[in-house]
Amino acid sequence: MYTDSKILKSLFYVQLFSSFLVVVGHFTASVLYFNDPFWVVALNQISRYGTVLLTIATGYLTAYSFEAKSPTPRDFFTGKLLYIFLPYLVSGILYHYLLKKEMPQTTLDFTNILMGKTGDHLYFVFMICQYYVFAYFFRNWITKRNILYVIWLLLAVQYVYINYLHKGWLELSTRHMLPSWIFTLYMGHLLYWYRETILSFLRNNRSILMLLTGIATAAAMFFVVSSKLYVAVHLTFVFATLLSFLVLMVFFLELVDHLRLKFRKGLTYFIFLFHSAFLILFKDFLFEQYGEVAWVFQNTWYSLLYLGLIFGCSFLLSLLLVWLVKGLEQLGRFAGKARRERLQ
């Protein structure tokens, strides 16, 4: 029997793996400027799974939060403001400074920060903030009772918006807008509401699980060799990633009792936010010291070592931020308790 505790632990490992894929994606995008051996192209294509896996996981965790915690509007949006939006703003300011070598000053600068334009990956958080607002206000409209019907409407919304409705308002890409991801996000809700049925079925039917694993692997190979670039919001890519998500969930569920890495709230989010800072800083350092970076990327072992260094630094910084946030939470609870005691 897969308990909710084990499922959440498995989901944490999926998120951690996804954050690594996101780092790989931005790293290989840098390598492609200098060299494009097959392994770099393959990793770049596979890395696109990372964002979609994180999207499905976000939908799953949001559905879990609504059901398990029943948050009030104040609790829900205060939490998102403190733990999602404020770090997002900090990272936006950081990337503005790293890329332009100056602090934001103009209205346009701050507008770009708010809309996730200062970092190539921050569009995702801008979109997720839209989703949290939508998901909370529609939590009583889109439910387990009707999701099997509504999901087809959301599929149509995502397809029609991407292919016909998006016009690039405010110089925002398709990826910035919630309708481009709405089906993907609510697949996470569906998986949460039917988690017991789906996971038990896969656990008890190993032949079906092996078939899904084979299809997911074949799909990944197809994306690697395809001359067409399948972006993260492309529905073909979404369905392939959904299969991979299920396979990874079962895989980690089988290992979760043997893995010692503890769940850290915010760890994968901070890796996502700040890994590109190390890409920029290390690249600037190499330019300053050697005048160019091609010699790193043209050597496979140097490249892999460089990738490991980027992810390792991102991981350590994120752990530090997790401990900092946890300390601030404890300090806030202590201050609140002391205030209540004084009032009594």
TrEMBL record:
Stated name of the protein: Acyltransferase 3 domain-containing protein
Location of the protein in the cell: Cell membrane
Membrane topology value: Multi-pass membrane protein
Organism domain of life: Bacteria
Transmembrane segments: 12-34, 46-66, 78-98, 121-138, 147-166, 178-195, 207-225, 231-255, 267-286, 306-325
Keywords per UniProt: Cell membrane, Membrane, Transmembrane, Transmembrane helix
Organism for this UniProt entry: Brevibacillus parabrevis
Similarity-based family: Belongs to the acyltransferase 3 family.
Gene Ontology cellular component annotations, sorted alphabetically: plasma membrane
